[in-house]
Amino acid sequence: MTKRRTVVSLVAALVVLSVFATAALTVGAQQEDGAQQAEPTGLVVDSIDAPAAVAPNGSITVTATISNPTDGELTEDVAYRLDGEEQDVVRHQEVTVAPGGTGTVEFTLEATNFGTGDYIHGVTTRNSSNLTYLDVTRDALVDFDAQESDGTQVVVESTFVPEGGYVTIHDESLLQGDALGSVVGVSEYLEPGYHQNVTIQLFDVEGAQFEETSLNGSQQLIAMPHRETNNDTTYGFVSSDGAQDGPYTVDGEAVTEASEVTVTSEGATGDGAATGGLAGDGDDADGNETTDEGTPALEPFADR
Question: Where is the composition biased (Gly residues) (predicted)?
Fold first, then answer.
């Protein structure tokens, strides 16, 4: 009798547990469905076009794409926010977006009296934010990612030339000290500031002579920002035997980044991606690995 009562009690307990488990799953499913069915209520920052670097006292221009996912027209406050190095700047604009539509908003800020260092900036709405890093620096920067190419051109993902200039592409003979003969490509003149997706034609450099018109197979190439020193907006480093338009340097060393370029028959050149930052996966000319810092993992800025 005791054994039967124990069995019955166990069966009853299992039934009760099953009921509670079913109820919990039902409530959980309802909560999940509710979360999935929740309608967005405000404007959303879809993307921003923001510089990753600026010189002290330079100009910062940020453009944001704003969407309205609701069924009604929305007019809301959209803010640009910059924070870091004893700076806390907020700029506001009122933006109206049609139902289901998108719009753009632009903010311009002068980096007056900004100290050099790392900042975070971006655009926010009442319930969304899009943020990225900003480096206030006097140093040139370059981000040259590994990519595929048809052998006739490459893409430098981003560069910062504080006084204007060019980005040159060198082959590996640079590592043996051939600063002039290693130049295999150069960009058009770049205005002072930050530039993204700079396409560079190879084997077309003033003052240089080439037997080839495209890369002879996959290889490592090196990107190097150069100054404009004689105000003619024409790259003259090679034709002047190094007397003009020399490289940007930091601590006496040229600013460089090296990456592998894979030559393909399809002719794909780079991925065209903008990372909001200048640090990308690759190597500098000395073979030191560089890494991508990624997007700041931050909570949206508080309302101001």
Answer: 269-280
pLDDT at 266: 57
Cβ 40 vs Cβ 69: under 8 Å: yes
Least confident of 24-38, 153-167, 246-260: 24-38
Beta bridge partner(s), residue 83? 88, 120
Within its chain, how far is the Cα of 65 from the centroid? 16
Collect all residues with Cβ–Cβ distance below 8 Å to 233 and sequence separation of at least 6.
Answer: 189
**The CA-based dihedral angle spanning residues 99, 43, 77, 194, taken in that order and rounded to the nearest 10 degrees:** -110
- Amino acid of residue 158: S
Q: Is 252 left (phi over 0), alpha (psi -120 to 50) or beta?
A: left
Kindly report the average pLDDT of the chain as a whole number: 83
Q: What is the DSSP letter of 119?
A: E
Integer Cα distance of 27 and 287 in angstroms = 56
pLDDT in tens, 57-98: 999 999 999 999 999 999 999 999 999 978 999 999 999 999
The whole-number pLDDT of residue 251 equals 95
* Secondary structure of residue 4 in the 3-state scheme: helix
CA atoms within 13 A on the CB side of 284: 13
Q: Which of 157-171, 230-244, 270-284 has the lowest mean pLDDT?
A: 270-284
Break the chain into its structural domains and give their ranges: 1-38, 44-136, 141-290
Q: Report the C-alpha gap between 10 and 145 in whole angstroms.
A: 64
Q: Which residues contact 89 (CB under 8 A, 6 or more apart)?
A: 80, 81, 82, 83, 109
What architecture is the 44-136 domain classified under in CATH? Sandwich (2.60)
Signed CA dihedral, 84, 278, 223, 154: sign only: negative
The answer to whether residue 5 scores a pLDDT higher than 60 is: no
Name, in order, each residue with C-beta under 8 angstroms of 178's C-beta and a sequence gap of 6 or more. none
Residue partners of 237: CB distance under 8 A and separation at least 6: 168, 180, 183, 207, 226, 244, 245, 246, 247
HSE (side-chain half, CA atoms, 13 Å) at 178? 10
